[in-house]
């Protein structure tokens, strides 16, 4: 009987260790074929508008009810040639379509499919109204090649066409044209608000 008791204790300890191991594995997510620890993932990692591998599905971020906002509801401050400030309203819900508005109209070369351009941008996320990324903070423009087919989110490939050099454009990007299920520090089903400057177009 004593031996049976010892065997049961050893088995219980073994099960406990296995549970700890499984718990540790649950704290990692597969990203692009490799495993990244959730604990190590920074909460505010840069969210440059490049495409990223999808992550696990989470519930949509909570957003205000009511009518959909328009670009006129979003406030942008700051002079041309300097970093803008974006204020997302909390009195209406995020738009479901890609929206754009030229805040400053340039007179230089026009962005067409296949164009190369240098951009300055600021990104604010709709649900928490936080600035997530800015090329201004890095002190240099973000380069973009082959607009329309560039390795960036669809909201940029579609939304930058027609800009002229010197233009400052407000872009509101719905989740399906942004990061969808999340990535690059962005929560799933997030609406993105960009102000993009066409610094140089060729």
Summarize the structure.
The protein is α+β, with helices and mostly antiparallel strands and 202 residues long.
Helical stretch tally:
3
In terms of DSSP E residues, the strand content is 25-35%
| Main sheet overview | 6 strands, antiparallel
Structural class determined from secondary elements: alpha+beta
Low-confidence stretches: 1-45, 53-61
Instruction: Tell me the Rg in angstroms.
Output: 23 Å
Counting DSSP E segments of at least 2 residues, the number of strands comes to 10
CATH class (first level) name of the largest domain? Alpha Beta
Whole-Å distance between the termini?
85 Å
Helical residues, percent: 10-25%
Fold-level CATH name of the largest domain = Chitinase A, domain 3
Query: Could you say what the CATH architecture of the largest domain is?
Result: Roll
| Secondary-structure element series | HEEEEEEEHEHEE
Mean pLDDT: 79
Oligomer: single chain
What is the number of domains? Answer: 2
Morphology call: globular
